[in-house]
Amino acid sequence: MFKYRGLQLVYDVNSGSLHQVDDLAWDVINLLLNGDGRKRTSSLLSRKYPPGEVEEALCQVEELQKERLLFSPEPQLQDEKLSSRGVKALCLFISHSCNLDCRYCFTRRDSRGEKVSHMTWDVGKKAVDFLLQYEGGYFREIDFFGGEPLLNFPLIRDIVNYAREKARSREKEFSFTLTTNASLLDEQAIDFLNREGINVILSLDGRPAVHDLMRSFKNGRGSYKATVENIEKLLQGRGNNNYYIRGTYTTNNLDFTNDIKHILGLGFSSLSLEPVVSGEEGLGLREDDLPVLEREYDLLVDLYLEHKEKGRPFQFYHFILELEKGPCLYKRLSGCGAGMDYLAVAADGSLYPCHQFVGMDEFYMGNITAEPFAFKREIGEKLSSTAREKEACCDCWGRYLCGGGCAASSYFFSGNLKKTYNLGCALQKIRLERALYLQALI
Amino acid sequence: MQHIRTIKKGNLQVLEQRGCRECQTSCQSACKTSCTVGNQVCRQQEGK
Fold first, then answer.
1. Which of B1, B4, B26, B40 has the most A C-beta neighbours within 10 Å, making it the best mutation to test the interface with A?
2. What is the Cα–Cα distance from B40 to B17, expressed in whole angstroms?
């Protein structure tokens, strides 16, 4: 239950339903939640409201309870569905090298020491074969990642062509994503990405000064100009579809709504701005920053509504909610699926539970080129704590919306995969409350 | 008088047994550093 800008909203965690209530229903639900029974609730509230109306509100609550839309029971699941039946998604480090030197890049986190810079065709081909080994399901996913994957563009092209050809005979379908800094997008790459319908995640932080301070070329020159020019060319060729502008905010731009305004001003309308999770000292967010950040997300709500009203809506990744057609409980409990449904492959073929663990010996799962091929599934299973297994999630109203949080953040910030990253959780709840509010308005 | 307006009827109580795993892996879609599942659409529900 929460109040936001004059609306009183009740989110039923176990059904995912959202209700708007008046003062009386707010009080009724509050008392019932606190363990006061029907009789006591009725008696207590009849001193404040007309008894007939209290009865009416209680009946409405009971009706919703019968429909399992309020006070609904914990949803049940067959446990075996939480165990992996095969890997369906891979994040490929096409190149560990990068032409930029971003100050918050998580591949700088430790001495990673990858032995190979560019992925070879042998590794790429085996990654596709690995995804097709699993016979279940229809969809397969590959994200081209790095470093900067466009430094090894020919391999991307070869993998896409090979995967599409192999998928046809297996009656599977691949979807591809490219995560890129965009500075190396040339005509050849743009044509290919647009022709093949490859989703792109394009790194752009916002205002030129903000972007350039964090995202410079190796010689120290800012990358803003090249990035924006190339993104414009790329998006023109795809009807402005299938993309996300993905920025990062740090302590340097806690006023990140101004960066979002700038991105919108460039004509880009599908975006995600994420809190920094690593980088140089001084860039990381602190609990003390939360009040400022909360106000900033309020400003973003204003901006969101203003654009909607003017007929120029934009998509902010963390304000999207699918309450009626959202994923099933299995998905909501297993979160990102790292280590189970989803693995990362380093350029030399080494397997890790996700892209943030690449290069860390304790998370090494095997090598995709080994013959006979085998990998340590148990390493991945360590990450598979569901939202029900984490203590902090059990009491959290947002557990079925966030899926239990990022395993890498848990590990890097709390040193324990079964714990949560408290600051990340606080930000997630701030965003979710605003996303729910927007559901009530729109 | 109506004291409660249901804005969205969630599907968690009806989809609980599904688990087909065909939806997009959430980290592949945009964030790469956080986890969000509530913004995804169930592929079996798309277009319905």
1. B4
2. 18
